[in-house]
Amino acid sequence: MASALILFPLYVYHLSVDAYGALSIYLVFITLVQILITFSFDTSVYVHYHEFKNDSGRLADFVSSAFAFMLLSGVIVALILSVAGEMIFRIALPDQNISFFPYGLASVGTGVFLAVFKVHSSLLQTREKPETFLWSNVLVLSLIVVFTLIGMRLRPHSLAGPVYGRLLGAFFPFLWVLWRIFNEFGLRLNFHWLRESLSFNIYAFVYQLQQWFINQFDRVVMLVYLTLADVGVYDVALKCLLPIELLMNSLQSAFYPRVVSQLMGKTDQRGVEDVNRYYHGLIAVVMLLVTGSILAFPIAIKVFVLKLFSNKAAYAEAVQYIPYIAVIYLFKVIRMYFAIPYNTLKYTRPLPVIYLMVVVVKIGLMILLMEKMQIYGAVAASLVSAAAELYLMKRFMKDRFVYRYNIFKVVVAPIMLLLMIVAIEPLIPSAWKWVAHAFYLIVCIALLLWTYRNELKFVNPFGEKRE
Question: Model-level pTM?
């Protein structure tokens, strides 16, 4: 995600909006391959590590077998797609100037390498090794950026730089992860263990696959009704809001191992106050990020694109969609809270049902709305499906876990902010948009100050001891 932000100016300089739209399709494909190879081990490692951490033999079986299984899966998927990839692209993307060879095949390799690296990162998180986690991710980011810069220098105005740069940037960390894992845990492929573990993974895997349909497949569906340029504009709006995604996921990753430890040790299956405080803070931060992004990014894009790259004015069309996409993160952060027990209780069975319903809602609405509303139809479908996802996550856990939380802090405050933005934004003239966006931020700050007025009494920024 960070590489997409850092490299965005380079993409704008070298690529047309159409080419950027094609690149976004290849990135969507990389994510799909990554999910197929990961097979939800990035999720199960949080739970299984805490189960096996006191039994070194079972832990070694789990970790080594998981990585060996991913390597085997990577070889099989690569072979299958080498034969069938072009046919799949032609069926899924008819009448589009996108081919599986060579960039689709390179994307397969990138997906395999990043899948292995991602599971290793999850293992580092749950083992609470932040230094190794940080520097390994910095390494991947740096390599992707450097190789992409070199590629676009050698092949400007071509997708070769972005695609092959990501491939090479992921390859060397992939080798480092394999050396590190097999050096510590040995090389094992315990099929008896796999049969037991994959029964848990299969539900989470289907869930992740459905998440891909919800969060990524919309670009493919858009090509049925819209152009590659439209996909490029839509993807630019999404990329601008990646800082929210990065910070939201990073903050949860920082405290999530402790959440798992606390809830797995409980017998009454009820929420605990310490867990709630983590998510109160996370929701408040995301509220500020959403309103801050709505104010800052439209201004930044107009200055950056129209002043520095006046011949790429088509990129600036993304500005109008940013407020409506940003508010979706308010649903997403609330959903993080209601998703806790699905992993800690290992109750993943309802997830395929929940997300099948969400996928049907989103794709169905896109088909109904995009022909008349164009890109706004895709955004509206995303917003409605995010609300449906939140409702279903809470509803399906009703009889298994008791959520104890402050409804105003977790639900009412962010939803109030969302409804205000969605109601006001269409009514404001273009020349006054920045005033409305500043108003959203002011209201958000005031709402949070009022909501946390009791907690703020105990905040001492100078660190001095209170009487």
Answer: 0.82
